[in-house]
Amino acid sequence: MHSHVTRNLIILVLAIIAATAVMPAQSAEAADNSRLEGLEWRTVGPYRGGRVTAVTGVPGQPNLYYMGATGGGVWKTENAGRTWENLSDGFFKVGTIGAVAVAESDHNVIYVGTGESPIRGVTTSHGDGMWKSVDGGKSWQHIGLERSGQISRIEIHPDNPDIAYVAVQGQIWGPNVERGIFRTVDGGSSWQHVLKVNADTGASDLSMDPTNPRILYAGMWHHGRKPWFIKSGGEGGGIYKSTDGGDNWKKLSGGLPGLIGKVGIDVSASNPDRVYAIIEAEPEKGGLWRSDDAGESWKLINGHRVLHS
User: Fold this and answer.
1) What is the phi-psi region of residue 213: left when phi exceeds 0, alpha when psi lies from -120 to 50, beta otherwise?
2) SS3 for 127-159, per residue?
3) Chain mean pLDDT for the chain
């Protein structure tokens, strides 16, 4: 089993639902769908980098975005994509980026995890750990986790930019100990391996409760890559939850499939008891799952094959 569907799809689905939910009934009835036919997708750049799996905005600055390409490093736009500036050239030793996060309490602080997380064929590149900037990307410092391989997500404490959590997916071609959730409380000077399952199971996603930074959800993925196939699903995979800032974790069940592959996870900003998960699993069990009680119980709300294939 393998899946390249991540949190971006969840966000897109929720945005569409929210937009239609607040639309007055009379407006919906009067909508002329023919107007939508003239809309077209357009690329906003930059000109190099290949696939992009890491993008983040900055609260209060709607035109400012950072993105990480799978082969082109870290980029910044201050005009909503009209022009881009590369920030990592001359600093980073690798060009593959798996995660980018900006501290909510200090926008000068940026954490970057290297190593693209949606592992593909032999074109997938491995990273060299974590990088950090404290001046908005003007300069960078390597802050460890060199053997992490691929990094899928970073969550930063909303009030303290020195506290951050990193979802480490792990090496591609073989088992390694450095898989799971790592935490720093000193801005990356040191790291604690707060969630580790086994040498084959890494973290495919991570989400922090926006109303309580002590509550974290991690998607754990038993995976590996061979020249002829991607191994996905196995012992240890699933959704884990911490309510004490990562000190302790509990594997969630509550109706979830027994054998789980790759997982994308996100907590609703408007209702933290509602948690969404895109789960790769056996037929009729994979797809978009939802919990309305903070992970205690789950139900499959969309089993379409594109959500879990």
Assistant:
1) alpha
2) CCCEEEECCCCCCCEECCCCCCEEEEEEEECCC
3) 89
